[in-house]
Amino acid sequence: MNDDGASSPVIVEIEHGFFKAFGDGYFRLSSPPDEKPIFCSNLGEQEVSLPLDGIIRELALKEDSSLWVMLQTIGKSLKYVTVLKLGDEVPAEIRNGKASWKAEAKHLRTAQQKLKMQLITWVSGRELRTSDPAELHRFFEDPATIERTTEAFNKAAEHLGLEDSDEVVTMIENFAVELSYIEELSERFKQIEDLQLKLGSLRKRYVQQNKIIDELDSVLRLIKKPVACFRSSLEKVETQTDAILATLRQLDVRCSNVRDVRDDLHVRIEAWSDIIDWWKDLDPENSPEIDEAKAIRDLYRFLAQRYLDADEWVLMFKENGETGNRYGGVMTW
Q1: Whose CA, among 41, 92, 142, 244, lies 20 to 30 Å from 9?
Q2: Where residue 327 falls among pLDDT bands split at 50, 70, 90?
Q3: Strand 83-85's sheet: what is its strand order?
Q4: Rounded to an integer, what is the distance from CA 332 to the centroid of its chain?
Q5: Are 85 and 117 in contact (CB under 8 A)?
Q6: In whole angstroms, how far apart are CA 99 and each of 66, 110, 181, 219, 261?
Q7: pLDDT tens, 78-104?
Q8: With b meaning 16 or more CB within 10 Å and e meaning fewer, what string describes 218-253?
Q9: Which of 81, 95, 78, 73 is nearest to 1 (CA)?
Q10: Pairing of strands 46-51, 330-332
Q11: How far is the C-alpha of 237 from the C-alpha of 254, rounded, in Å?
């Protein structure tokens, strides 16, 4: 749905002659730190990129015209997908608020068990929280826990004024689906935290090499910001399940809040995928120094593009002697 309640396009379809003139074009975000939606096509060996805002202005598109709506939809969609081409499906996040990616079954089970534990805690008045999936699994295999869970569902139905506990079970299952995505994102975030720890270990290894130490210190300083932001967002969701009865009474609102965090975290953590995949197998004690030195520089550039203040980012380009075309191989009109 659009902000005004109108249905969003389902497929990326554009009939306007301006876009047909470019042949096989596609839509993506420009490089960090700008990350603005652009239309790209090739002219010979040169990639031409045209900002969507500029296209809307040049074509004098009226708001709510079909092409204006389509370009607005594409711009919003690029938060969730890397590239959109004509004929592609608009992401589910835009169409109906659901995720366009799947959480694993293990994350759904963990989310369900965490919610059930909150109900048991509410009934017993004793704090039983654990976030370890293995501990949760063992806890809910205990026949005594199964009995306590049934009692918790019954009491929750009574307090919520529902006819039977099956309605509470359905509410828990539906909310767990939303939280399963947060569980998966938490697992990815843990890999970023592990990366931060590896950087600290590498610093000890290179303590006698001033150049690498300077680069590592810069990376360690920059990585604190995203780690703190990701942790804060995840903790915000965690607090939404603390008062479980209040959560169930406002389930639609809570689901919407979780989806907002899910979408924001997913697009930001997804940008780390290549970084995470490279660093997860690195052993700070045994990996070749040349690979580590390059990886540290690449990581600094990645972090600087996204988390360095704008003035510092421009200064860094000047100090590195980078001038002219900012994105390399791309002509931006």
Answers
A1: 41
A2: very low
A3: 83-85, 26-29, 37-43, 46-51, 330-332
A4: 27
A5: no
A6: 25, 18, 8, 32, 12
A7: 989 889 999 999 999 999 999 989 999
A8: bbeebbeebeeebeebbeebeebbeebeebbeeeee
A9: 95
A10: parallel
A11: 9
The partner residues of 43 in beta bridges, in order of sequence, read 46
Q: pTM, whole model, 2 decimals? A: 0.81
H-type helices in the chain, by residue range?
17-20, 52-58, 66-77, 92-95, 105-124, 133-141, 143-160, 165-205, 210-239, 244-249, 251-270, 273-279, 289-307, 310-319
Tokens standing for 45?
Answer: 């060996």
User: Coil, helix or strand for 113?
Assistant: helix
Residues in the chain, how many?
333
- Name the residue with higher pLDDT: 2 or 284: 284
Beta carbons of 151 and 123 less than 8 angstroms apart: yes
Are 100 and 267 in contact, with CB atoms under 8 Å apart? no
Checking if the pLDDT of 331 tops 50, the result is: no
